[in-house]
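Box 3.1 A note on notation
Throughout this textbook, protein chains are presented in two layers. The first layer is the amino acid sequence; the second is a token string describing backbone geometry. Keep the layers aligned when reading.
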Amino acid sequence: MAASPWRPLAPLVLATMASQALLVFLGPTIVAISHDLGASVSAVGQARAVTASVSIAASVVISTRVDRVSVPRMLALGSGLALAACATVAATSTVALFLAAHLLVGVAFALLLSGGFAGLAAFPAERRAWATGYVASANAMAWIVVNPIAAGVTAWVSWRAALAVPAAIAVCALVLARSALPLPARPMPGSLLAPLTEASARRWIAAEVTGYASWTALLTFAGAWFIDGLGVHEATAGWLLAAGAAAYLAAATRSGRLAAWMPRRRLVVRSALVMAGLLPVMLNGTRSAWLSVLVFCLLGLAAGVRTPASAGLGLVQLPSRPAAMAAARTGATQTGYLLGALLGAAVIAWSGYRALGLVLGAVMVASAWLAHRVDDREDPAPRARRLTPGPSPGPRRYQGPDRGAYGCSAQDRPWRGARHRNRGRARLPGNPLRGTTFRGEPASPTTACRSLGRLT
């Protein structure tokens, strides 16, 4: 594990990417599907609602068994169902059969996404934030990879052939499923309402639902805003959406560095508030396409910070059952997807895009408020190791009673020479040498360490 952390991470990323590819596929192919099946675009679009509804129900069932089924088996089962779902959807000839086939899509989605995030609990605490960033970024990878390839295959061959794109990702996840690390065995009985028994877990679920409702509503109608509101060509709008996904990917893959020095709850709250401020600016404050794209990319950056930080925060809400929280996250995200699509459509029909920006900003503020009330049950060991330097070779250390108060030893912060001389004379408070003065900086924990360094 320590030698090659990428090997157990790859199946989690591919499984999450495969789950998102099952949804993203519909975007560039929906018009061709409606023409082929002789139905309206809105009727074909109900496939997204069917998938969301089934995945919500499936995630509830998974939460009762997820601690008994190994993560590799869950990923293998989800990948196999994804392949069956792609084949079934491609074989449909009517819109009714097309919608019915998405029952399989919803179950496969729930298994892949729950397994992908549940597998993060097997990583050590110091590696978990790094791994979470890459798993969360798989959503953006699907947007960047699946959208253009599926659109090209649909234009050159057919929408049925384009289903080979999510199927290929599912095959890769199936092949590498065994590489995922199993969760530590816990004799904890499954419970349908386990994630709802803790008040902090309930607030986290509510924060995820509201956050995803706001973000999904933007993703659903951002393309329409670029085309209808700003007059951008359809082909160009696809690349603009990919730019936002690329910004999300860049932020998510580097979010582990932020989590290394800032608590996850603070990251979630601050990034959500940034998004709440940018949403009205994008949909209300500008009529320039390029400025709107810039704001959209900033939103992608903020979302790329918020999503993995919130996922890591959710995994520790039930320390004995992180896999159950991963299943709860699947249900929360799909509920957010469903509510976001319904909310966005209702607001646009009622008052247009300007009102949508204000409403989505208010919903994201509510998500930040709920996240602020979530307990951050972080393992203090990694943070303690970051704040307390390790042993270093050299002369003996100061072992007085105030070593813990200063947080370092004499050799951890040695005297740095003439750069810090002649800046006044400081008196060290609260140590065995009280009353003795030294040349150095004004008295502070750092000064104390430096001054003590001159004595050892």
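The mean pLDDT is 76. Residues 199-379 form a domain with the Growth Hormone; Chain: A; fold (CATH 1.20.1250.20).
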